[in-house]
Every structure is written in structure tokens, then in C-alpha cells.
Amino acid sequence: MKKSYLLFFIILLLTGCAQSTEEQGDKPIEEDNVTKEETTDIETNEEEEAEPLKDDKELVLESAEKVIASLQDQNFEELSTYVSSEKGVLFSPYAHIEDDAVTFKQEDLLHFFHSEEEYTWGARDGSGEPIKVIPSKYYSEFIYDASYHQADEIVYNPEQARGNTIKNSKDIFPDSQVVEYYVKGTEENGNMDWKALNLVFEKNSKDEWKLVAIVHDQWTI
User: Fold this and answer.
1) In a 10 Å sphere around its CB, with 0-12 CB exposed, 13-18 middle and 19+ buried, how is residue 118 labelled?
2) What share of the chain is helix, strand, coil (3-state, %, to 5)?
């Protein structure tokens, strides 16, 4: 009889151990679940923190603002960093760019205000006389001749001409983007003394927007 009880007790004990082992095997591994959740959180945070890519218009307008600041400060060393190293920067005193317009290489801008060499930048409206002056004189008359940092209008890719001069920057630089800084004229002069500065940007071989032309504009006869 005692042997029967002992045998029954051993069978009961073995059955309990087997059930306990099965229950433990059914339990999920919590460490793996935590790791996956943490990884998901990290990936989500990285996506939220990533800045959206700027489009071409934003990039060009940002560069144009920096160019205007450099021109205002007469800091042509800074200006040169925004200029195309492949094409240099073209200067035009009027909205219609002539075939023989003066172009400065990027490195030549470093000596812009120190140069005593006279360049023929174009012909004066009305008289037709050549605009033959040193760079610093040209700057005063045909680059920063108005408060463009306080422009009344900033126009991206202007389509219409301000005056009666035909704009042709898109013909010279067909793949360009243009930012126009316009300063209104005064009532005492019948608003005919308005000024505008067109900054022409084009992509270089590295797909970067670089300044390729500074085109001045004003009322012409």
C-alpha cells in the first residue's frame, strides 16, 4: 500500500514539473520586445528631426540676400564666395545685356576696389558715350546706387520690364533664376528715378546655385 502511495506521489510530482516547464516556454521574451520598441522610437525621432530639403527658390533667395549684404558692405571677398568659379560674374549697366559686357573672374573680385584700370562697361543711355570708368566708380553708379537692402519690392524671376529697355538675361542665361531688388522713384522726379538690381543665378557643375550676373536697371530714354 505504501508503495502505491509513493508511486502516485512521484507521478504527481513529475506531472507538475512538466506543466511548469510548458508555462515558462509559452512566456514571451520581454527583453526582445523592449529593444524593438526602443529602436522604433529612435527611428521615429530621427525622421522628425530631419530637416526638409529646400527648393531652388528658397536657395536662390537666400543667396541673393547674402549677395546684397556683401554689395552693401563693399565686401567683394565675401561676394566672391557666391560667384561662379566657372563663369565668373558679368556686369551690365542696363537691363539689356550687350555682347561685350564686362565679366570678372571669381579671383579678380578680390581686387575690385583697388583696381585703377578703366573698363568700358557699356554705352550711356541717351548720349551713347562709353561708360569708361574704374570699378569703384562703376560700383557707385551702376551697382549699389540705391538702398537695395531696403528694397520696396523683391521679385523672383520678374517677367515684365520696369521701363522700356528689353530684358535679355534669360536669353544669355537660359537656365538661370533671377532675383530683382526694386527701389521706387520719388514724386518730385515723377517716379522716373527708380532703380533696380537684378541678380542672376545659375547652377554650376556641382548643382549649386551661383551668381553669374549683376544687371542694373533704371529708367531709360
Assistant:
1) middle
2) 45, 20, 35
Q: Do residues 55 and 47 touch, judged by C-beta distance below 8 A?
A: no
Q: Which residue's entry shows cell 575690385?
A: 112
Per-residue pLDDT tens for 117-176?
Answer: 999 999 999 899 999 999 999 999 999 999 999 999 999 999 888 888 899 999 999 999
Handedness of CA 154, 158, 162, 167 (dihedral sign): positive
CA 109/CA 114 separation, integer angstroms: 10
Which DSSP string do the residues of 79-143 spell out, in sequence order?
Answer: HHTTB-TTT-EEEESSSS--TT-EEE-TGGGGGGGG----EEEEE-TTT--EEEE-HHHHIIIII
Q: What is the pTM of this model?
A: 0.77
